[in-house]
Structures are given as structure tokens and as C-alpha cells.
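Continuing the series of single-chain predictions for the mutant panel. This is the parent chain; the variants come on the following pages.
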Amino acid sequence: MDFVDRSIIYRFHHERIEMFGSGTSGALGWKSDESQTVRFEILSQIGDMTGLSVLDLGCGHGDLYAYLKRKYSDFRYAGIDQMEELLDVATSRYGSQPDTTFYLGDCWSADLPNMDYVLASGLFAYKNSETDFIFRMIGRLFASCRLGTGFNLLKNVNDSEGILVNYDPQEILDYCRQLSPKIVLREGYAEDDFTIFMYQ
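Parent structure:
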């Protein structure tokens, strides 16, 4: 992701923080707390994470950690985000929890640690000037997971003049099947969203 693309994302979230306040789901770009939670629920179904490690890319406020903690125990969590303002909230909320670490870093180019599950909620919602960006990123996520990766993407969003981008589920599925025969598509939980699980 180039400098211009990153700058647009920074500006988008700074405007959202000013509009909705720091630490809110609105600051992250979610329509509501409920829209964020329903995506967390789907991602959490990738597998039993008890006793395993989880990497959360584009972790924002780290709230996926809190959701997973209600379902699974004794897992190790690492969250990465490029925006210090968001990570400050994450660290304040969850940084003192055991086996929980937050990193300031560029999810698109930084070396990613190998962990059992690699998850991304909302990370790929933004338009990008590089046409193969989504495919390269899916490959990065899959290469970093020991067991599986899960990510959600937008579809049917009318934002032609804005920052958001839609993806065709079939096109994404076709690419994922080049990397792994073990692919699951989840739809129907939201009209504008779908989730893919890829397993090693």
C-alpha cells in the first residue's frame, strides 16, 4: 500500500474520531457496535482458539480480543494497527491482560509473526490503487497462519465516491482455492459483508 492510500485511511479515521469520539465503533468506521459484533461472531467460528495464538490485523481498539475472551480461554493474542490513536485505546482497555500484546505497525508491509489463527476484520474495506492488493494481502495472511486465517470483505456497498470498496465473493473464492483446498465462505449474517476462512 503506497503513501497516498495510507494517507487517505489516516484522514478517514481522524475525521471519524472527530465526528464520533475516540474509542467508539464509529471512529473505526462501523455503522454501530452491533455491526462490529456480528462480524466478530462470524470470525470467532473459524475454530476453537483455546490454548492457541491469535493475530488480529488492523486491530483498532482491540475489541476482538474482548469478544474472543468471552468464548475461549488461555489463548495468546497479538493485535497490530498502523494508527497510534486507535492503539492507545486498545492498550488502555486490554494492554494489562495476560498474553496480550499490541504493536504499532503497517499490516500491509511489516513482517508478520506466525501464529495459529490470523484474523482481519475490516482491514480490507478501503480502496487501493494497486489492482492486485487484495490477493497479495490474502497470501500474506495465509502464509502467517499455522492453522487458518479468516477475514471479512464488503459487498453491495454504494460508496463509489468514497473510501470503501466492494469485492465479488466468487472472485475471492477462486483466488483462495489456488492457495488451499480447505475454504469456507460465510454469508447471510449481513447484507453488505462476507467472510472467508482458509485452512492449512
